[in-house]
Amino acid sequence: MGDECIFCKIVSGEIPAKKIFENEATFAFLDINPSAKGHSLVIPKNHHATMLDIPEAELKDVISTVQKVGAAIMKATNADGFNVLQNNREAAGQVIPHLHFHVIPRTIGDSLKLSFGSQKAEEEELKEYEKRVKEQL
Ligand code: 5GP
Ligand code: ZN
């Protein structure tokens, strides 16, 4: 684990947290500064900084817990839906360098602003990035 990692310390119990779920490989707890009531974080127990650092089998365990927690949070908060957000590296807004998925309950008409698709792309640009990304896969 990262010796100074806050989320590793939450897993070990060194720092208190509102734990909502735990299994062999994963851990889920309430976000201390929620975007909505019930906003939770799902993490691997092992320390991995980003989605690029975690072995695929462990990532699958984390995603399974995200699904479970998402369903529970919707029921617990009477939500109509939920967002799953996951930031990789500082440029993407990652503050805690221990991989985590945000699970945020949503209600129709709530005022939370998370926007995608705000820029219009030309056909040539889309073709160029289709090619560039495919070459890396
Ligand atoms: P990031 O920006 O790295 O994707 O999100 C980190 C999240 O961790 C933030 O939403 C923040 O509120 C939450 N967080 C930071 N420190 C703590 C803590 O000590 N306890 C809990 N429960 N959440 C934390
Ligand atoms: Zn950690």
Short recap of the structure:
The protein has 137 residues and is of the alpha+beta class. It is built from three helices and five strands, in the order H-E-E-E-H-E-E-H.
Q: What does the model show?
A:
The protein has 137 residues and is an alpha+beta fold. It has a single domain, classed as HIT family, subunit A. The chain has a 5-stranded antiparallel sheet, with helices on one face. It is globular, with a radius of gyration of 17 Å. The site of zinc ion has 7 residues, from helix 1.
Q: What strand order characterises the main sheet?
A: 1-2-3-5-4
Please count the helical segments: 3
Question: If you compute it from the alpha carbons, what radius of gyration comes out, rounded to the nearest whole angstrom?
Answer: 17 Å
Class based on secondary structure composition and strand pairing:
alpha+beta
Uncertain residue segments = none
Q: Would you tell me which CATH topology applies?
A: HIT family, subunit A
Spatial separation of the terminal alpha carbons: 30 Å
Strand fraction equals: 15-25%
Overall morphology: globular
> What proportion of the residues is helical, as a percent range?
25-40%
**CATH H-level name... which superfamily?**
HIT-like
Number of distinct beta strands: 5
CATH architecture: 2-Layer Sandwich
Give the oligomeric state: single chain
Main sheet record: 5 strands, antiparallel
- Which small molecules are bound? guanosine-5'-monophosphate, zinc ion
Mean pLDDT: 95
CATH class: Alpha Beta
The domain count comes to 1
